[in-house]
Amino acid sequence: MMLMLATRAANAAPCGGLHGEAGLVSAVGDLLEQRGVNCADVRGEVRLDGASIVVTREGDTIPVERRVADLATAATVIESWSDRNASDPLLASHPIPAIVVAAAPVAPPPRVVIVERQAPPPPSFHGSQLFAAAETSYANDRTTWAGAQVGGCVVIGPLCAEASVRFANVIDGPAFWTGLDRRSIEVLIGGDVPISVGAGLLLLGFGGGTGQVHTRVDSRDDHRMASETGGLRAEVHAAYAYPLTRSIALDLAFSLDLTQATRSEKTTTMPLPDEPLLLARLGFGLRWGHLQ
């Protein structure tokens, strides 16, 4: 009789697809009925396993089993199965429409202007120049000279044609030179070839001309104790012009001078030292003109 009542109660449960222990099925069915759950399509089993309630859903390819602690939780699990038809459309995968976002205009990269610093043009000669230098010389007769040179040059093609005048006098010599006074003057014509070296110009040149040497002995009768010689002159020289401004440069020069005495006038019978044949000169001065 009890078996028939339990079976009837189980069949009367709102979830007719549930089976298992009659008391559990009835109790879970009452909870689902109170919640207004329609679980007619649910197929499953409710059973005790020790202190836990095991709810198994049937009808799927792989049975789903849940182990809960009480009837309310078991009813909640079955309720979730009964709502599957409503939740599946929500859980189903749907294509997400592509959202096209207009790309923001990209500003062109800043324009980088590279300014190349141009090196200053190398110094060069053009037009005309004037120069002046203080000089010191040493001669083959062991005399030391001091003097000055002034001149100018005009650029003609790659050559600077120049003319200069040089003045010098002996300031020291051997012991026998005591009491003697010797001075010279030269006029030279030549040319320089300028070559750019570093910040300045190297000038390689030559010159030739004529000159006179006046020698006298310190005496009360000076006009009778003197001699004068003259002759051709030739020199080679090298100078370095270092620009200070666009029109002024420092000049450092070295030259070798060759002299030749071809004429002599004496007002004394006293023997006097011969004119030196070779002089080495060192000069330092300034140059003015169009240097750049």
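Second entry:
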Amino acid sequence: MSAGFACLVVADESPEFPTALSYAANMAKAGGWRLIMLHVIEPSEPAPWVTVSEEMKREAWQNAENLLERFAAEVWAECGVTTEKMIVEGEVRPEIRKYIDADANVKLLVLAAAPGGAPGPLVSAIAKGHGFGQRGVPVMIVPAGLTKEDARALSERAPPA
């Protein structure tokens, strides 16, 4: 077992996220790592009234909590891994960078690639050489065409850290 090592997966509502999560969860299980799901609530346009802005923010937090709870339950049912759930507000790339810099135990970042066309903003940033954080952390990009079963099979064959 790896002392405190963690796998960070960026959680969102994209159709490809469940496959990336399955890969990350099974990697964490195989390596004895912690699994962290990070969801970033991006800033929204300010509403004309404070109460409307507050309600929009409250709804965004509630939706994020529901999303992470649902996926944490799926991970537990699939492979028995307890997931650490993190919600932050801000822009996605800087928030990922902050999290990786703050938690030295994060040893792997797992991202889902979008199907067809452009791979998505996070994967595109990696392709352009823009990393996440001050220290080098490997990034696993789970292809959009992979099924959850394929991802599970690949992660179970991966060597533990």
